[in-house]
């Protein structure tokens, strides 16, 4: 019936768990805490010079991020100790709220860098597209679980999910955030495949998505410039290729051992978005290969253990929820790292738990708490 969970898991009673947490739970918990600690240090290193120039306070950006990390850790611990099944009843409300905030941002959103993606609440800003990712995994997992005996019915499963995902992706695309829209589409397709929806139903969606994505990429000049820069980075080094070129130079300067803490050049404005999209370049430059590799290993450990959790979850909802969260982190990590390494066009996607950003960090922590709760109850 499903490609993700073992059939035996379906027949286990709700709440079934081992006498002690499985090894993957401990590995995942340690990984996510170490990643947030690493991200705090990385943001401090990446933001100090620019914070002095722009705000007159070396710790302005770091202070905000430290506050968000504190909130994220508390949120993770709260969610970790709450049964993941309780989130099922909130799935419809989350879907509605996520959709409405995406609509609201078009009318009352804050514009930055030519994009209107944030809702300003004075003390803090909220990015609805990040909330949409979280609502997606819970909403789709709940919907697929409820209709798991009708997975071969286009009208009962595939079409309803596709319509809502198309609406969400369209609203995000209007925000000039095509990369997040594509990521949400990939997460939805991955969860539908994991649930056991026939490939013949998914193939038209994949084909349509690829064609439409290619058309939308080429429809905007700045996106075309990124694609050209990806294939011919030396043609416009001081323009569209500047960010990726400087990022690669930073990694090259770091070499094996790194330049040492505070000894890099990326954070001095040479690499745009050094504390968000390209924070891995700062880590690689100052800590070198020896410091950057553990970050990848920790992320990989969390994601692989997440997929293992999906296989051993106590029920179908937990299995699909674990799969959706794992796909989310896998895709986002791959898009960010491959962009920094010049193996994909730059997208502006953040690195989970490492990059500066309040909404993404807190929602990532909540999603991690959900996954940890499932892992603690897994076989």
Structure description:
With 379 residues, the protein is mainly alpha-helical. The chain has one domain. It has 13 helices and three strands. It has a three-stranded antiparallel beta sheet with strand order 1-2-3. The two termini are 19 Å apart.
Kindly report how far apart the N and C termini lie: 19 Å
Can you summarize the main beta sheet? 3 strands, antiparallel
% residues in beta strands: under 5%
Oligomer: single chain
Summarize the structure.
This protein has 379 residues and is mainly alpha-helical. It has helices at 7-10, 23-55, 60-80, 91-108, 128-146, 154-174, 178-195, 199-219, 221-231, 242-254, 279-312, 316-340, 358-376, and strands at 109-112, 115-120, 125-126. It has one domain.
Topology of helices and strands:
Blueprint: H1 7-10, H2 23-55, H3 60-80, H4 91-108, E1 109-112, E2 115-120, E3 125-126, H5 128-146, H6 154-174, H7 178-195, H8 199-219, H9 221-231, H10 242-254, H11 279-312, H12 316-340, H13 358-376
Antiparallel strand pairs: 1-2, 2-3
What attributes does this structure have?
single chain, 379 residues, 13 helices, three-stranded antiparallel β-sheet, mainly alpha
């Amino acid at each position: 019936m499903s490609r993700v969970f073992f059939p035996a898991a379906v027949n286990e009673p709700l709440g079934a768990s081992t006498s002690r947490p499985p090894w993957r739970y401990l590995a995942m918990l340690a990984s996510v805490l170490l990643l947030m600690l690493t991200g705090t240090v990385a943001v401090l290193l990446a933001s100090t010079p620019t914070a002095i120039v722009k705000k007159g306070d070396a710790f302005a950006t770091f202070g905000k991020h430290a506050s968000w990390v504190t909130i994220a850790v508390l949120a993770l611990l709260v969610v970790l100790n709450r049964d993941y099944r309780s989130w099922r009843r909130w799935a419809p409300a989350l879907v509605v709220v996520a959709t409405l905030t995406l609509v609201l941002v078009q009318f009352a959103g804050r514009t930055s860098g030519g994009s209107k993606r944030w809702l300003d609440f004075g003390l803090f800003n909220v990015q609805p597209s990040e909330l949409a990712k979280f609502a997606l995994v819970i909403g789709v997992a709940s919907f697929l679980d409820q209709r798991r005996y009708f997975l071969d019915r286009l009208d009962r499963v595939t079409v309803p999910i596709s319509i809502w995902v198309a609406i969400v992706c369209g609203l995000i695309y209007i925000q000039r955030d095509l990369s997040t829209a594509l990521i949400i589409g990939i997460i939805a397709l991955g969860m539908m495949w994991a649930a056991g929806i026939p490939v013949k139903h998914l193939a038209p969606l994949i084909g349509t998505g690829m064609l439409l994505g290619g058309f939308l990429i080429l429809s905007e000049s700045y996106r075309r410039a990124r694609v050209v820069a990806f294939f011919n980075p030396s043609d416009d080094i001081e323009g569209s290729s500047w960010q990726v070129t400087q990022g690669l130079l930073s990694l090259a300067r770091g070499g094996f051992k790194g330049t040492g803490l505070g000894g890099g050049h990326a954070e001095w404005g040479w690499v745009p978005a050094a504390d968000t999209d390209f924070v891995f370049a700062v880590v690689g430059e100052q800590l070198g290969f020896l410091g950057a590799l553990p970050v990848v290993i920790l992320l990989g450990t969390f994601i692989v253990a997440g997929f293992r959790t999906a296989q051993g979850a106590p029920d179908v909802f937990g299995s699909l929820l674990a799969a959706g969260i794992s796909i989310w982190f896998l895709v986002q990590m791959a898009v960010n790292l491959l962009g920094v390494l010049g193996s994909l066009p730059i997208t502006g996607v953040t690195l989970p738990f490492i990059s500066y950003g309040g909404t993404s960090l807190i929602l990532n922590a909540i999603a991690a708490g959900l996954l940890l709760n499932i892992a603690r109850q897994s076989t």
